[in-house]
Amino acid sequence: MASLGPSTAASATVRFATETDVPTILALIHELAAYEKASSSVLATESSLLNTLSFPPSPTSSLAPKPGFARTLLIFPATSANASENENECAGLALYFHNYSTWRASPGIYLEDLFVRPKFRGRGYGKRLLGELALETKRVGGERLEWSVLKWNEPSLKFYESLGARRMEGWVGMRVDDLKGTGEGGQGGEEGGELEKLGRWGKGVEWR
User: Fold this and answer.
1) I need a labelling partner for 158 at 20 to 30 A (CA). Which of 19, 58, 61, 108 fits?
2) C-alpha distances in angstroms, 159 versus 127, 165, 207?
3) Which residues, 6 or more positions from 19, have their beta carbon under 8 angstroms from its beta carbon?
4) pLDDT tens string for the chain (208 positions)?
5) Which residues contact 169 (CB under 8 A, 6 or more apart)?
6) What are phi and psi of 110, to 5 degrees?
7) Active-site annotation holder among 35, 96, 125, 160
8) CA gap 197, 176 in Å, rounded
9) CA-to-CA distance for 111 and 70, rounded, in angstroms?
10) Is residue 29 within 8 Å of residue 5, measured between CB atoms?
11) Dist CA 93 CA 30 (whole Å)
């Protein structure tokens, strides 16, 4: 098996986020948005994350797993001799959901957010999180793990390419938003948004 990088990556703790981790998840989302120069685009709140993310049972709760639309992996540093570091401080996250390939007739994973806090970078934590996602993709019978990267983010592009990822140069991302006020990327939009307008062409289909 190939090395994960620094020994701290292999000994770090990776686990699924529970409902009690929502404040940490939101904080990491804001930190990632700041790095991507898009802080004003974050509309997520603790309440909206609680209502839309999936969570396994909490060790301190008897509640059943909560279904949602995405799952979150959190990584915590190994016990360190460095007194300034707290092993309970979250070092980063990988937030993902399942997608599907019609050509391969197989599921896959789409990585929405991968973020490692600056003080924890250079330890292989990003590789560890991607490694866990690769294993999860294989576990569900999937054949593809994919994500998007901002074009200006050359350090990340080179990092991902060093792990075997390739750029999908022949594809252009498309999106229809339904945001009110200022949308992602700083684009203003009227109330209702383009998603609502597009929905006028549909009639609604029930899942039975």
Assistant:
1) 108
2) 9, 9, 42
3) 50, 55, 58, 61, 66
4) 344 445 579 999 999 999 999 999 999 999 999 999 999 999 999 999 999 999 997 666 666 667 899 999 999 998 764 656 677 899 999 999 999 999 999 999 999 999 999 999 999 999 999 999 999 999 999 999 999 999 999 999 999 999 999 999 999 999 998 865 444 544 444 556 888 899 999 999 998 8
5) none
6) -110, 120
7) 160
8) 10
9) 10
10) no
11) 12
Q: Among 41, 32, 14, 7, which residue's Cα sits nearest to residue 189?
A: 41
- The count of residues in the chain is 208
d(CA 46, CA 66): 15
pTM (2 decimals)? 0.85
Joined tokens for residue 55: 């969570």
The sign of the CA dihedral 174, 175, 176, 180 is negative
How many C-beta neighbours within 10 Å does residue 201 have? 6
Active site residue 160: yes
Q: How far apart are CA 90 and CA 150, in angstroms?
A: 24
